[in-house]
Protein 1
Amino acid sequence: MYFKLMRDFFKTKTWIIATLMFIIAFSLSSAIVYYELGFRKNVKTISASASNNVSGWAWSSNIGWISFNCTNDSPACVNSNYGVDIDLTTGNFSGYAWSSSVGWIDFSPVGPYPEAPLNSAHYDSSTGNITGWAKILSMGANGWLKMSGAWANGA
């Protein structure tokens, strides 16, 4: 019986099947690694200081509440350290906000922007208006948020 098993083991058909199984397993493993590395290139690490100068919440009828700083969370900044900042010299926004329904929102995205104004979020201190764009990262090319409105009483 042992010799019959050994004789069957060394048949050409057995070697072909074993080789094909190895090639298929190697190909699938390579494909998984390739796609995993490809997806990781698009992952951004979100980090900001709890001392950013924008805090509080904003409401969007499309996506709900948006948190501008991790100090809004309870306990503050334990799970994630994020925040939005306005450069008081240039008026340009930077940093990230969080929405529990759509995820991270980048306040200094790089264009091309969908339409005018062709810039990321910006505060004009002479008029009090906020214009430009922010980007919902999880929505790719469809994730643009148009900023419009006036800054009043710190809100």
Note: The longest strand covers residues 129-136.
Protein 2
Amino acid sequence: MSNRIQTYAEFWPFYLREHSSPWTRRIHVLGTTVAVVVAIHAVATGDLGRLWLPFVIGYGFAWPSHLLIEKNRPATFKYPAWSFVSDFKMAYLFWMRRLDPELAKAGVKPSDRKAA
């Protein structure tokens, strides 16, 4: 019996619980948003040699928040693809103001969701 998560449907609530602090979520969303803007700029200007930069920016924001705020190990190390997709999903839901219901379903307590 493996203790690895087998489906994305199982992973998503785990991902949200690993980001229970509103500050961790804010930092992740900021990093993801800046990374997307930098990627769009690189493509729009034809400077494709800089497409590595969004990865450095995105993870450069995200990983320290796990160490300093959540005190956990980023899910990226065990589930890289699902974690990558979830960063964008969380940012999208955050900006659309639809993240709170997902946090509630994942069992992130209301006190942990303040100013999400």
Note: The first helix runs from residue 8 to 17.
Protein 3
Amino acid sequence: MLIGGEDMHLDVVDDLPDDAFVIAADSGLDQAGRLGIPVDLIVGDLDSVSARALADAEGIPIEQYPVDKDHTDLELALDAAVRLDAARIVVVGGHGGRLDHLLANAAALTAPTLDGRKVEWLAGRDHVYVVGTGVTVHGVPGQTVSLVPVAGPAEGITTRGLEWDLVDATLDGHSARGISNVLTRPVAEIATTSGWLFAIVPG
């Protein structure tokens, strides 16, 4: 899945599955063309995608919505992914440009409809793992990983593979306690019993 918002780095292509079903949200179509990523579906109000990208996308299915709508293009793309019963959703982009869009995009990744699905966000050079119940975080020993609660407290947090591991801990939305932990091995395990948590590996 691709969304617009800023020029995305070429190395994100290496993080996408070879058999990914790619949904371009509005100007994400331009980014997909720049990165050479084939698109399977275009979603959005099409107010920011270029005319050239649309012309080059002839034959690709489009779900077009009114400009005056109640949902962002990312939310519409996520809804499409849910309808397709995607088990893993990788959101690319949406990091720069406008703070309101950045915060709204972050909130959209904790929608109840995504519960039980593996959701990741490649935001600029940062890799965000959305922890609903549990995830494995990949990196290199010594690399920073920050744990940030989203949409309220995250409870029952247990980690393995971090320098300061947590056991049945709670992080509320008013604390920066989870910032700047460190990986001690290439794969760390992070689980919660309730709430949403972002595990962020900065680029």
Note: The mean pLDDT is 88.
